[in-house]
Amino acid sequence: MLNLKTLPKTPMEALRVALLHGISATKGGNANFLALKKKNHSIANDLMITFAVINSCASRISDEDLKGIVLQSATTDENSDLSSIRLSLETAVNALVAYNLDDHFLDEADVDAFDYAELNDDEKDEIRTLMSSARFCVNGAKSLLEWQKRNILHHISKIENELLKTKSRFEAFLAAGYEAGELVKRIGEDAQPIASAIQKALTITYRKVEGQQQIEEEAEPKKLPKPRDDMKTN
Questions:
Q1: 184-207, pLDDT tens digit by residue?
Q2: Where on the phi/psi map is residue 32: left (φ > 0), alpha (ψ -120 to 50), or beta?
Q3: Are residues 83 and 118 in the same domain?
Q4: Do 47 and 127 share a domain, yes or no?
Q5: Same structural domain, 100 and 127
Q6: Which of 17, 70, 199, 217 is most buried per CB count within 10 Å?
Q7: What's the domain range around 206?
């Protein structure tokens, strides 16, 4: 039986729990829903409560397409068998997963703001120095295999290429940072200077990513204006 007391407080999460519960309740049977209802069977009672929860959650969904699919899954012909009810609930779960996945990603209009950084000349020079240091460490690291050296040098070159552009893609810095981190995991301290140099370059660039700057500005508490001279009292 669906436990209403343990349902999540957010409609989307409560909906997910109710749909999955309904799917579980209808597994392993093809009985007629109306027949079960007439017998006051526990499965029929459980499903009626589950449908009520699904309908309640759907009423709080703003996306009309998703709402329609969810409501349809809980609007069941009483002559339906359990397998067809289960299929309908599974369709609603798939729609919910697709909606949540789509909601997870940035809109196309926002991607550029979180992937590009405008670096000034001093910042670019500092990053070039860091990449030169990282390249030196790679070439001198005896514990690195040749393919590992080629891989990390490729990422260093990609960062250096981004510095030639008006706007640098943050993705190149993230990829290099990930690769350096993996090197540290695999070979240990020998890769630490490489990872450190790349991490510093990543940090410099992260601060200049337009979207990140906007988030930090919005998070800062508003400061009161300084008092005018004519407002000061002796």
A1: 888 887 789 999 999 999 899 888
A2: beta
A3: no
A4: no
A5: no
A6: 70
A7: 112-218
CB atoms within 10 A of CB 58: 21
Cα–Cα distance measured from residue 93 to residue 59, given in angstroms and rounded to the nearest whole number: 16
Q: Do 20 and 58 belong together in one domain?
A: yes
Token code pair at residue 60: 């709080």
Do 52 and 20 share a structural domain?
yes
Question: CA–CA separation, 135 vs 65, rounded Å?
Answer: 52
Please tell me what DSSP assigns to residue 10.
S
Residue closest to 46 by CA, chosen among 109, 2, 80, 11:
2
**CATH classification of the domain holding 64:** 1.20.120
CA distances from 131 to 24, 59, 140, 185 (A): 55, 55, 14, 20
- CA of 112: how far to CAs of 12, 55, 118, 159, 211, in Å? 29, 39, 12, 17, 8
**DSSP of 165-224, one letter per residue?**
SSSEEHHHHHHHHHHHHHHHHHHGGGGHHHHHHHHHHHHHHHTTBHHHHHHHHHHSPPPP
Who has greater pLDDT, 117 or 150?
150
Same domain flag for 126 and 184: yes
Checking if the pLDDT of 210 tops 80, the result is no
Domain end (from 53, 74, 104): 104
Residue 225 lies inside a defined structural domain of this protein = no
> Per DSSP, what are the bridge partners of residue 116?
169
Q: Where are the alpha helices (DSSP H) in the chain?
A: 11-25, 33-38, 42-58, 64-73, 82-104, 108-111, 121-140, 146-162, 170-187, 192-206, 210-219
